Amino acid sequence: MTKWVYGFGDGNAEGRADMKNLLGGKGANLAEMASLGIPVPAGFTITTELCTYFYENDQTYPADLKEQGAKALSDVEKIMGAKFGDSDNPLLVSVRSGARASMPGMMDTVLNLGLNDDTVKGLIAQSGDERFAYDSYRRFVQMYSDVVLGVEHHHFEEILQDHKDSKGYVLDTDMTADDWKLIVASFRTKVEQQLGRPFPMDPQEQLWGAIGAVFGSWMNQRAITYRKLNDIPAEWGTAVNVQAMVYGNMGEDSATGVCFSRDPSTGMNRFYGEFLINAQGEDVVAGIRTPQPLNLVEKETSHSELPSMEEEMPALYKELNGYRDRLEQHYRDMQDMEFTVQRGKLWMLQTRNGKRTAQAALTIAVEMCEDGLIDKEEAIRRMDPAMLDSLLHPMLDPSADRTVLAKGLPASPGAASGQVVFSADEAEKWAGAGKKVMLVRIETSPEDIGGMHVAQGILTTRGGMTSHAAVVARGMGTPCVSGTGEIKVDYASKSFSVGGTTVNEGDVITIDGASGEVMLGEVPTMQPELTGDFAKLMAWVDKIRTLTVRTNAETPTDAQTARKFGAEGIGLCRTEHMFFDPARIIHMREMIVAEDEETRRAALAKLLPYQRQDFSELFEIMAGLPVTIRLLDPPLHEFLPHSEADMADVASAAGTTVDKIKAASAQLQESNPMLGHRGCRLAITYPEICEMQARAIFEAACEVTKKGGAPVVPEVMVPLVGLFNEFDTLKKVIEGVAKTVMAEQGIELEYLIGTMIELPRAALRAGHIAEQAEFFSFGTNDLTQTAFGLSRDDAGNFLKIYIDKGIIEVDPFVSIDQDGVGELIKLAAERGKATRPDIKLGICGEHGGDPASVVFCHHAGLNYVSCSPYRVPIARLAAAQAVLGAGSYSTK
Ligand code: ADP
Ligand code: MG
Ligand code: MG
Fold this sequence. Notes:
eight-stranded parallel β-barrel; binds magnesium ion
């Protein structure tokens, strides 16, 4: 017999925290808290296996489920001393979804389930408060109708508003018990009108209806989208939790709240949270009332006027603080908890490892390690490399002028600017057109996920630090300012106003998620300091990893940034980027349109000093670290002039006519430039280009060496080799230049000559090529293009469809296709090593900064990865995690 149902309550539980796969995160942790003796309302969890069964069997249940459910429910009744459906002493329950990982797309919780015209009488008797009972009843009808029956909530809001208007009421608190009673009746009539059948009065029907709706919601569009964005497989399924209700809305000695064992925004070790007196469930996160601070520290830092829990309920606050310590010690991680106080008794309703900003993740991991709660390996494992990105993100330049429009809550740090849009759909549209958008909403909900994902930042006018917008933004590492009440959003006119200013759709604003400031226009930003906890963690990382991390850089600025981020050399210096400067491109163009070798050499001679200068600077910055320089790679037509004016300039510089330039351009047009006359093919045709570049490299190396710095070891890299003879021919040219220059300069230099492996043929023939090549650098961008026979520039349109249809899992240009392209890399590495055991192996190209690809490179036995400067810390961390046995990461 399969066990589908696991009970918990009264100090006992059938489940445990490590049963998340079966019980979902919420269920497993409720069970764990119950076992720890922490007060949790009794309940039971229906397993994720049941969800799988449900979808494999035409959305039906196994025969023994109802019986197991009935038994579990009667256990809850015994513990809570009340009976489900009883008109004297009714047990009410909540029905809560709970997947393995917390998942916004899932069905919302239904509270107060079990109420009907009979049981409400019992609730009145229990509470002695008729108004409370009918308020609970109407909440239930509305929630259940919305969430389970699909009757949109605006219907209910309209009924309520009409009633209040007719009575001249302003607030919900003006409503009396009789008012709520009338509202319940009107709600039920509305439901019947909408659905053609009455609202279910039978508590069993209500219960199973809600359970079915949870399982049904696993396949709704919101959940599917969220799973796709977060790489959660559909097979996981969700669990359902049915739990006895406790009431935070039973008067002034009742309350409900949300808290974190440490500050989820900064990571500071202080108890942090929000609560509301006389409120139920979602009231805190819904942002309907402004939440109160949990304690005095929080009250002070948030400049709140409202009394804190520490002041209003000191004994309960102390008890809660005790659970905070216990749960954090127990789980050895920062906890995100929910609680309710019913008439002076504290109940814990949820705990989980809290979502946090990258900054908080770092601070918490380092502090917990220093406090001995976790070890260094664990601290490293806990950091998501992709998240580091946001730590390296810009902050506002403190000296920049700014016009502050308003101040909200600092919900998710980082500064960002963008054009204002007022809906998630618009955000996606604008972002799709290449615009940077700032999503401005009164509040956000799970339907907005797509738009939140593409926005530079998120600004809301309602809701606290634990509102949907805040939690989701922190998870995404997107800057967010929430609860900016001064701002009045008008969706109809697509504008917002604050003070005397109106901001329209398309206007640029800047937000600072660290201070909560909202500013007009774009405010300049600057880079963060990489000291403190970051430096500590990186030092631990560097002790563990075996893979070297280099950078792709051709400008001094990039090279310096990369050094600051810990780069251990340059893995790819693309020389063509050095020719696009206006002063230089003219000579490049002269070179390209030259009709004979002599003219070409004359033009190249003018380029030589520029190249030499660039290389000298790079060598100096890298101070003895290896620098790999790639010879000219792209097809020549990329450098040609387009405008008449440019053509005229080149014509006069080259002493020729515009017509001749046009003719030369036409001559160079190719139908498939990616596979055309480029890479080493250029240098085979025009060896003088290779000679000039080699001369610039060796002269620069001599110059820097003569200055007495660390000896420079240039690595000259030949691109797009497919044939042994291509490489062999050019190696001879380069060696010839090296000898000449060293003789001229009277210096002996060490240097390496190697090749990129970016064509399948080169990978296959690696054993032969290694006879001459001293290093391989896998150019995985082109290797992916050529292995797939896929042009990256043209793939954008259909790759997305491939991913949507599940034909491929991730974009192979983002994360290495380990099975195909990866196989070519492993094979080339093996064959290269067989010929030349000490051959140096590395990868350059975007993949060098993708955590999953870095882990792959570690296992493929490469010596180094090379990536853009900002990804260097990410690659360092991923390389350490590879040593610690990490698999692959999500590649969003
Ligand atoms: P979510 O996953 O969105 O946090 P929850 O299931 O935790 O959803 O519930 C939403 C709200 O309802 C929370 O504030 C929670 O504390 C409250 N809640 C859930 N179950 C109960 C219950 N049995 N008694 C009182 N409040 C509850
Ligand atoms: Mg919750
Ligand atoms: Mg290439």
